[in-house]
Amino acid sequence: PRMMLKVILYAYMNNIYSCRKIEKLLHRDIHYIWLAGYEKPDFITINRFRNRVKKEINEVFTQTVVLLSSKGFISLNVEYIDGTKIESKANKYTFVWRKTVERNRERLMKKIHILL
């Protein structure tokens, strides 16, 4: 489980969400090979693991955000520069409104306080 979590988190950090792409990287990219300890799980195994531990992955991300924020590495302040719409990989036909971001930020802060 540790190896799979490391590989998935590293892939997410590099904006790679496809299990098939992760599998290819486990065969080609030295960073992924090292993280996996030279093991090469197939995309089905990666997908099953990811689906089984979704809640835990979300908790790890939340705890990481809290830790980085408390140490001063990141700020939870939201900055707005302009109204540029950026195409998303997940849902290509939507964009995010400011109120939605603020509402979701409040929910995130509530989750963080519950965890702590």
Spell out the key features of this protein:
116 residues, 6 helices, 0% strand, mainly alpha
Topology:
Elements: H1 2-13, H2 19-28, H3 30-35, H4 43-52, H5 54-70, H6 98-115
Structural features, described:
InterPro entries: Transposase_InsH_N (IPR008490). This is Transposase. It holds the Pfam family DUF772. Residues 1-52 form the Transposase InsH N-terminal domain. The protein is globular. The protein contains 6 helices and no strands. The two termini are 25 Å apart. The longest helix has 18 residues, at 98-115. The protein has helices spanning 2-13, 19-28, 30-35, 43-52, 54-70, 98-115. It has 2 domains: 2-52; 59-115, no CATH class. The model has no long low-confidence stretch (mean pLDDT 84). The protein is an all-alpha fold.
Radius of gyration: 17 Å
By helix and strand content, what is the structural category?
mainly alpha
Strand content: under 5%
From the N-terminal CA to the C-terminal CA, the straight-line distance is 25 Å
Name the poorly predicted regions. none
Tally of DSSP helical segments: 6
Q: What is the number of strand segments?
A: 0
Which term fits the overall shape? globular
Return the domain count.
2
Q: Level of helix content?
A: 55-70%
Q: Order of SSEs, N→C?
A: HHHHHH
Tell me about the biggest sheet?
none
The chain-level mean pLDDT equals: 84
